[in-house]
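Input (structure):
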């Protein structure tokens, strides 16, 4: 699968942080994690902390899948509003999903505090504004529901938005709990820590077959080596879809650009993450060196060639959409890229086991909250493996 165009910003900025060899011998381990993106790195980190022996393999280089392309908005707000999600999965599951995503932001903050060297992670407020006047009543109801459920939210009227953000919008929810991170570096630093603790990390090692037996599984790699493991974790990102017989997600295309550095320190209220109610939505935030990161303009297709041919045009559209809101901030595209993006019908990820695949757990952070979902997946999978009951596992199960 073609996960993204050649030059996403994070890859250009940090390059090949660490390289690992390909697997050149047979191995035996407690757990094998297939996929060295943010999901695999967080899961390997959690399992290593449980005292398990872990091996991580990737058919590409670590971090270079969707993780390298991620704009890394960390939000507890799932793409499906809580009110709508309640109608789809029930009130309890909808509320817990939002709560778990909020907890995941702070878990990730804690993980980042302990990672060496330090990685960019900042708690930021998150502003969701109504794209049109007609969106205000629904957004206001969403605000009331979230407030009632104990989320730290504030309703902003047009004059508040203008004062704090400098643009016009007919109403907005300002949430206290959000964050931004460098997911690519975090992935590398987590894997490097695992490696220092003696866990094997292998690049250019594709799992081509999984053979199950009573005690676990034998994985066959592209170089014809075998990995014997008690447990298999599949964290292959959107490429995990090949293991799943039912259609659980649609793959779309998404676009992003990062501006040239801007000689200005403060852009808007506490450098919030900003997004809107329209679907697909425009979103923007500030990144390192006072650059503005803008994303959105999604296409509902997976066609890498067509997707990549549109990057320039989409960057221009993103720039224009931003300038329409904030004409005084001079954004000029410096980097622009495109990526595949899988969405599920309820906006929730799939985490856990699939019938017919014993000893195997999936960590699939699909949807706009992919990274916070990966944090949740690492916790649920660690609990399962260590024999602890996780009361929230059902919410993200394949059988939901
Ligand atoms: C442009 C863009 C913007 C995004 N913005 C956000 C955002 O703002 N917030 C957010 O939370 N999420 C966002 N996402 C989603 C987020 O990036 C993903 O959810 C996340 O990176 C997925 O990580 P992963 O580790 O599951 O997958 P990946 O990073 O793709 O890693 C999976 C790895 O598995 C490997 N692999 C696959 N098959 C095999 C095999 N058979 N054998 C060995 N290895 C294999 C691949 O090579 C790959 O490296 C965005 C995504 C894109 C593309």
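Output (sequence):
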């Amino acid at each position: 699968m073609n996960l993204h165009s050649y030059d996403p910003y994070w890859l250009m900025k940090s390059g090949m942080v660490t390289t690992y060899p390909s697997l050149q011998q047979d191995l035996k381990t407690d757990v094998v994690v297939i996929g060295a993106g943010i999901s695999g790195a967080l899961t390997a980190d959690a399992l290593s902390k449980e005292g398990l022996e872990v091996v991580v393999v990737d058919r590409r280089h670590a971090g270079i899948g969707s993780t390298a392309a991620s704009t890394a908005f960390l939000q507890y707000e799932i793409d499906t509003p809580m009110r709508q999600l309640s109608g789809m999965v029930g009130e309890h599951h909808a509320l817990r999903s939002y709560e778990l995503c909020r907890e995941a932001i702070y878990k990730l903050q804690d993980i980042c505090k302990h990672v060496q060297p330090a990685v960019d992670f900042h708690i930021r407020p998150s502003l969701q504004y109504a794209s049109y006047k007609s969106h205000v009543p629904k957004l206001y109801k969403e605000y009331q529901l979230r407030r009632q459920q104990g989320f730290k939210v504030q309703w902003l009227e047009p004059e508040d938005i203008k004062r704090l953000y400098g643009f016009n919008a007919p109403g907005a929810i300002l949430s206290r709990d959000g964050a931004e991170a460098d997911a690519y570096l975090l992935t590398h630093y987590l894997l490097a820590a695992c490696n220092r603790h003696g866990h094997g990390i292998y690049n250019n090692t594709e799992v081509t077959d999984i053979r199950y037996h009573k005690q676990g599984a034998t994985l066959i790699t592209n170089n014809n080596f075998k990995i014997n493991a008690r447990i298999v974790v599949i964290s292959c990102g959107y490429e995990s879809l090949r293991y799943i017989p039912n259609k659980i997600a649609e793959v779309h295309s998404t676009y992003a650009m990062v501006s040239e550095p801007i000689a200005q320190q403060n852009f808007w209220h506490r450098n919030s993450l900003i997004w809107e109610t329209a679907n697909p939505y425009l979103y923007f935030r500030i990144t390192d060196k006072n650059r503005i990161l803008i994303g959105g303009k999604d296409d509902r297709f997976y066609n890498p060639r067509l997707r990549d041919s549109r990057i320039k045009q989409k960057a221009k559209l993103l720039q224009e959409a931003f300038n329409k809101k904030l004409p005084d901030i001079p954004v000029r595209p410096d980097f622009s890229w495109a990526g595949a993006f899988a969405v599920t019908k309820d906006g929730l990820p799939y985490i856990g086991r699939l019938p017919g695949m014993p000893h195997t757990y999936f960590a699939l952070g699909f949807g706009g909250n992919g990274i916070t979902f990966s944090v949740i997946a690492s916790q649920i999978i660690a609990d399962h493996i260590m024999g602890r009951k996780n009361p929230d596992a059902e919410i993200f199960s394949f059988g939901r």
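Notes: The mean pLDDT is 96. The CA atoms of residues 253 and 306 lie 10 Å apart.
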